[in-house]
Structures are given as structure tokens and as C-alpha cells.
Write a structure and sequence with these properties.
Porin; globular; 420 residues; mainly beta; 3 helices
């Protein structure tokens, strides 16, 4: 945790403490997860997680609010990922809003989603509407996700300028710059678009470019058409340049090893999703995607699903998909069946997947996954869930997991508001 963020939290506590007890509304959710599973090396893992999210609203006549989200974890058995105890603050920021010009300013640890930016930052973010349909936003701070990576960035900043006409279109132009040592620099530009030429037609998409590597990162566009008499179709197309797209990743989870994925790979994906609501009980969906890789070859993925509502609170579903690719790992049939039922405070779900490969992979031609779960509403605020899953595929013999969840929602209002 950076020194800026520690200082910010300390100052924020001093500022908010006089008003927390009497003026604000506290609302949020606590989620406690307990998992029991066996790792690939046969060691037993029993990680316990606690996620806490809350909001403080009503500060300074509702113009100021505070938002927090973080988690703690403790492995009750063997070490998970070389740590028995871990923690993280996902976001913690003070938000100032003004109805005038739709103005907002956030200060602290926050997420920024603006054009080419999908960033985790210790810093500041602000946006406001301008005249004649223009709007502007900007942010600056220290990157959070790169703190543990070699050659990480030290400072990041960016902005987005947009123009739009309500209910017709909005187009945005964005810029991002991250400064670090010689081994890690980012400079990206992008354009994002939302266009609604007719009542039931919408185009959404974006394109990103890396000035650092002088090449495109990705393009992604889709068109939502409908519903017309219960029918909706969504054509889509995307293109990804692996070298520029993944080199800009700010989290180790999105870094890849050249031994697994060739950095010179490029992928073009085109397809469409369709859905037809036949009546209040039956929904039919179908989808198709063609994945064309410069190095790995091509693959077609297509199929459909039926979803039937037996009763108002009960439904069943059946699905089938075919993967037809150039390699043996990408030639298989995929089947799915599920049942969901809710009775009173209980709900039960059973979900199963079955895959049959055309050729054996590691002397096995099938893969199976089954999940069974139950949930119970103890009260309006408290819910208990438990599920168990079993899976087996050509890459490991079996995987059995138990998952328990305790979810508590709270909403604490000042005494003066309770009678309203």
C-alpha cells in the first residue's frame, strides 16, 4: 500500500469521524466465503475469505459520499499461493458530486473506466459536462495493479473528451500515459462509440491503439437489433493483437508466458447471438463464432440453448455446442443441463456439463463437471448458500470442491431518517 494511500485514509478518517455517527446513511454487504478443495500437488486448501463493501451517503447535504471495498483471506490448511494470510483494499474513495453540469470528483483508491482506460489507481478522477453536448473527464495517480510487477509504472494519467446527442449517439476520444522505468512504458489512444440510429438498433464499440509500440491493440464492435416480435440478434466482430494488447496489461493475471501463447498471434472473431422468446415460459437462444488465428488456425463454435419456466419460480434448461477447430483440443461436442427451483425461502440449483472430444487427449475422450447448490434466506438481510462441485477432464483426474457463503446486507440510517 503506497504512502499516498495511507495518508489519504488517515486524513479521511479524521474528516469523517465527527459526522459518521449522526449524519450519514451506512449501507453495504458482507460476504464470507469458505472453500475446501485439493490442489494439484494433493495438498488440502481451505481458504476463508471476507469481502466487505459499504457506502456512507448523506455527508454535507448529500453532495459528499464515501465508498469502500476490500477483502481478507486466511488459509485454514496448507499455504495458498505462498501466503496463509492476505488482504487487499480494492477501492476506498471520497466522492463529491454536483448536479450542476453533472460534475463528479473522486479521491482515493478507485477504478477508472474511461475509453482505453480500465485502471486501478491511487489518485483522483473527475468529470463534468460542457456546453453543446461535450463532456470531459480526467484522472491521475499511482497505478495499484502494477505494484508487484517488475518494471512497473510510477505515475499514470489520462483523459477522455466526448460529444453526443441524447438518445442518438456518443463518441469519445481518450488518451492514457503511464510513466515508469525503461522497461515499462505505456501510451495509448482510443475511440469509443455508441450509436442508436433507430429505436431498436444500437451499435457499441471501441478501438485502442498503442503509440508506444506503434500498432493497434484491439477493435471490438457489436450491434443489438430488436426485439422484434420476441426476436433479438446481436452480430459482433473483434480483432486482437496479442503483442500490443497483453503488453499493456497492468495485472499479472493478464500477463502470459510465450511458452503458452505466441506473442505474435493475432485473432479475428466474428459471430452473432440470437434469442427468441416464444412465450412467457420458453426462450430459445443460438450463437455462432468463427475464431481465426494467424498462428493457431481457425475454429468454429456454435450451438443453442432451450430455457423453460416450469413454474413462476422454477426453470430447466438444455444446451448443446460444437467446437470445430484445427487441433484435437478444439474438436468436441459440449452438452449442458440445469434445473433451478425456488420454494419459499429455499432455492436449489443443479448444473451439469459434459464434453466429448473427437480424439483422445491424454488417453481420455470426455470431460465432466457437475455442481449442486442450495440457498436459504435466513432473514431479509442474511442469506446462507452452499454448493459442491465435481469435475474431471483430460488434464487432471478429479477436482472436488465445497463452497459455503454467508451474505449479510445492512442499511443503517440516522434516527431522523428512520420514520420517513
Amino acid at each position: 500500500m503506497g504512502s499516498f494511500f495511507r495518508t489519504f485514509v488517515a486524513v479521511l478518517f479524521l474528516v469523517l469521524s465527527p459526522v459518521i455517527a449522526s449524519a450519514v446513511t451506512l449501507s453495504g454487504e458482507s460476504r464470507t466465503y469458505l472453500t475446501d478443495r485439493e490442489a494439484f500437488d494433493s495438498s488440502r486448501l481451505i481458504p476463508l475469505y471476507e469481502y466487505l463493501d459499504f457506502n456512507l451517503d448523506g455527508i454535507e447535504h448529500n453532495d459528499v459520499s464515501f465508498h469502500f471495498g476490500g477483502w481478507l483471506s486466511q488459509d485454514l490448511a496448507d499455504k495458498s499461493f505462498d501466503k496463509r494470510f492476505d488482504r487487499d483494499i480494492q477501492y476506498a474513495y471520497l466522492s463529491l458530486r454536483k448536479d450542476t453540469s453533472n460534475t463528479i470528483a473522486n479521491l482515493g483508491r478507485l477504478m477508472v473506466f474511461e475509453g482505453v482506460a480500465a485502471e486501478h489507481v491511487d489518485g483522483i478522477y473527475a468529470k463534468t459536462d460542457l456546453q453543446r453536448g461535450f463532456a470531459v473527464s480526467g484522472y491521475a495517480g499511482s497505478p495499484v495493479e502494477t505494484d508487484y510487477l517488475d518494471g512497473n509504472g510510477d505515475f499514470i494519467y489520462g483523459a477522455r473528451l466526448s460529444h453526443g446527442i441524447p438518445d442518438l449517439y456518443q463518441v469519445g476520444f481518450s488518451y492514457l500515459k503511464e510513466n515508469g522505468d525503461a522497461s515499462f512504458e505505456r501510451e495509448e489512444e482510443g475511440v469509443d462509440l455508441w450509436y442508436r440510429p433507430a429505436d431498436k438498433i444500437q451499435l457499441v464499440g471501441k478501438s485502442s491503439y498503442s503509440s508506444e509500440q506503434s500498432d493497434w491493440q484491439d477493435h471490438s464492435y457489436k450491434v443489438a437489433i430488436g426485439p422484434f416480435s420476441g426476436f433479438t440478434i446481436t452480430p459482433m466482430a473483434s480483432w486482437i493483437n496479442y503483442k500490443t494488447f497483453f503488453s499493456a496489461a497492468t495485472s499479472g493475471a493478464f500477463r502470459f508466458s510465450p511458452d503458452i501463447i505466441d506473442p505474435d498471434e493475432k485473432a479475428l472473431i466474428v459471430g452473432a447471438d440470437g434469442q427468441y422468446t416464444m412465450n412467457s415460459k420458453l426462450i430459445v437462444t443460438a450463437d455462432y463464432k468463427n475464431c481465426s488465428y494467424d498462428i493457431a488456425g481457425t475454429a468454429n463454435y456454435y450451438g443453442g440453448k432451450l430455457s423453460y419456466k416450469v413454474f413462476e419460480s422454477s426453470s430447466v434448461g438444455l444446451g448443446f455446442h460444437r467446437m470445430d477447430g484445427d487441433t484435437e483440443r478444439l474438436k468436441y461436442n459440449e452438452y449442458r443441463a440445469y434445473v433451478h427451483n425456488r420454494t419459499g425461502k429455499f432455492d436449489v440449483v443443479l448444473d451439469s456439463f459434459f464434453v466429448k472430444y473427437d480424439e483422445e487427449i491424454n488417453i481420455r475422450k470426455t470431460a465432466t463437471s457437475v455442481l449442486a447448490g442450495i440457498g436459504y434466506d435466513i432473514s431479509r438481510q442474511l442469506r446462507l448458500e452452499a454448493d459442491a462441485s465435481y469435475s474431471r477432464n483430460p488434464y487432471y483426474d478429479k477436482d472436488i470442491r465445497g463452497f459455503f457463503k454467508l451474505i449479510y446486507k445492512f442499511d443503517i440510517m440516522p434516527q431522523a431518517k428512520k420514520g420517513v
